[in-house]
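In response to the reviewer comment on reproducibility (Comment 2.3), we provide here a single inverse folding case reported in full, input and output, so that an independent group could reproduce the run without further information from us. The structure tokens appear first.
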């Protein structure tokens, strides 16, 4: 059986997603630099930058790890992730209804 943490992916994150806004806000409040976060989570500065600007797909496990580095807990991360997923599902349903 697959490890659920590694199989859940965030695709299509953009600057207006709930998760991106949450991360950006927490990052700004944390007072940490990209370099500080990179040291804690072992990722590159360009990866962190793309993530905070909504241009990076990421596993939920990595997202939680980064969130912890900027003082977010797993519940905050998963709640924002869930809102984004529900909006994606609602948009897909609306598109399907429109075309049938």
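Designed residues, in position order:
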């Amino acid at each position: 059986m697959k490890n659920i943490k590694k199989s859940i992916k965030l695709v299509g994150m953009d600057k207006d997603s709930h998760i991106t806004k949450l991360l950006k806000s927490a990052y700004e409040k944390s007072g940490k630099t990209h370099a500080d976060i990179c040291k804690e989570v072992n990722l590159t500065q360009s990866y962190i930058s793309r993530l905070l600007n909504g241009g990076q797909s990421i596993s939920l496990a990595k997202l939680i790890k980064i969130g912890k580095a900027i003082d977010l807990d797993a519940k905050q991360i998963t709640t924002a992730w869930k809102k984004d997923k529900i909006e994606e599902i609602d948009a897909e349903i609306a598109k399907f209804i429109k075309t049938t």
